[in-house]
């Protein structure tokens, strides 16, 4: 069975984006796990799993994407979880345009 590109992004892309956002919210904006979870619309245990690398264990090294994650984290702190989906979609589109998922999409 062939997996759809969106299926791969759902299983691998979204968790790594959430992980990076959670880490950024905590390190750069001083939120604790519970506060970061509330801002991201996820559970504190999910944040714990992201931090302990049990979820979203891929690493983003691309500066353009990390800058966008930092910008999104800043906006999330300011506006809350109301627009989290827009931020995740925007980051995902950048990941896709940079070819981060190409090796799985082309299979």
Description:
With 107 residues, this protein is mostly helical. The protein has one domain (5-105). Helices cover 71% and strands 0% of the residues. It has 6 helices and no strands. Helix 1 (5-29) crosses helix 2 and helix 1 (5-29) crosses helix 5 (84-97). The longest helix is centred in the N-terminal third of the chain and has 25 residues, at 5-29. Residues 103-107 have low confidence and may be disordered.
Count of helical stretches: 6
**Secondary-structure element series:** HHHHHH
Distance between the termini: 11 Å
What's the overall geometry?
Answer: globular
User: What average pLDDT do the residues reach?
Assistant: 85
Question: What low-confidence regions span 5 or more consecutive residues with pLDDT below 50?
Answer: 103-107
Number of domain modules: 1
- Secondary structure class reads mainly alpha
Biggest beta sheet attributes: none
Helix coverage percent of residues? Answer: over 70%
Q: Compute the number of strand runs.
A: 0
Indicate the proportion of strand residues: under 5%
Radius of gyration: 13 Å
The oligomeric state of the chains shown is single chain
Reconstruct the topology from this structure:
Elements: H1 5-29, H2 33-40, H3 44-51, H4 63-79, H5 84-97, H6 102-105
Helix pairs in contact: 1-2, 1-4, 1-5, 2-3, 4-5
């Amino acid at each position: 069975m062939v997996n759809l590109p969106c299926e791969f992004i759902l299983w691998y892309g979204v968790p790594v984006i959430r992980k990076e956002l959670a880490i950024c919210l905590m390190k750069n904006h001083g939120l604790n796990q519970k506060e970061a979870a509330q801002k991201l619309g996820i559970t504190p245990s999910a944040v714990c799993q992201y931090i302990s690398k049990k979820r979203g264990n891929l690493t983003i090294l691309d500066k353009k994407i990390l800058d966008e994650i930092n910008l999104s984290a800043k906006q999330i702190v300011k506006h809350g979880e109301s627009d989290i989906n827009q931020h995740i979609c925007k980051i995902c589109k950048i990941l896709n345009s940079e070819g981060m998922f190409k090796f799985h999409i082309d299979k």
